[in-house]
């Protein structure tokens, strides 16, 4: 009797999951690529094929270029803040025995990451409020005049970076803690015997071993930062709830073109560019970390 190959059962077990993944992930990407080549209007029956006309028009669209610039600045700022701060907090929690044994500190740091985006943004909007917010009252104690945080283009961009970094740091701390707990204590003891301080042991022992973890956190943070929308929408909305556009980000521009201007093909072209940017930056991060590991 012929026996069945060992790989047959795992493949059959994974087929439903792969089918679901293709339906909710692969098919939308393929459909977006197709729509980007059409002048696809929701309210019009005529949807002509325009090739790369949508992409050519994007190169001269000031709103799109502004959205790309703002999103890139925000994404890289969040990564630059999240990685060192998250690593420092994780090292602090891991270095103290009392903090390491208690999950209260880990939970308190991770809590901002699990809070819903809209309530968190509303809370920070109150903090940044020019008249009633506690931030202006706090900086007034040291002689700094009150600022219109959400009505200035540069300051509103800074507010968005602060809010998104506050939410991203908790996840980074949790992942870094997992990596630090897997570093053998014998390596730290060997470094101390060689005369290394605690900071030097962390720099030359823990950090090199955490490079795969740092790569993972940086990639996930960069991808999620390029997809921010709710935070920018809430911070820029006025008192009556009407959407504002003081900080235009890429996803907000895509949704506006799709559902307000009914230019689905044009918004699909923006989504394709966003996908290309994320893929290029992710590949660059992998290449950078691989070259450093070889060095």
UniProtKB/TrEMBL annotation:
Where is the protein localized? Cell membrane
Pfam families noted in UniProt: BPD_transp_1
Matching CDD domains, A to Z?
A: TM_PBP2
Q: ABC transmembrane type-1 domain: from which residue to which, for each copy?
A: 68-285
Keywords from UniProt, A to Z, are:
Cell membrane, Membrane, Transmembrane, Transmembrane helix, Transport
Q: Which PROSITE patterns match?
A: ABC_TM1 (PS50928)
Q: Which family does it belong to?
A: Belongs to the binding-protein-dependent transport system permease family.
Q: What protein name is recorded for this chain? A: Bicyclomycin resistance protein
- Organism, by scientific name, is Bradyrhizobium iriomotense
Q: What lineage does UniProt assign to this protein's organism?
A: Bacteria, Pseudomonadati, Pseudomonadota, Alphaproteobacteria, Hyphomicrobiales
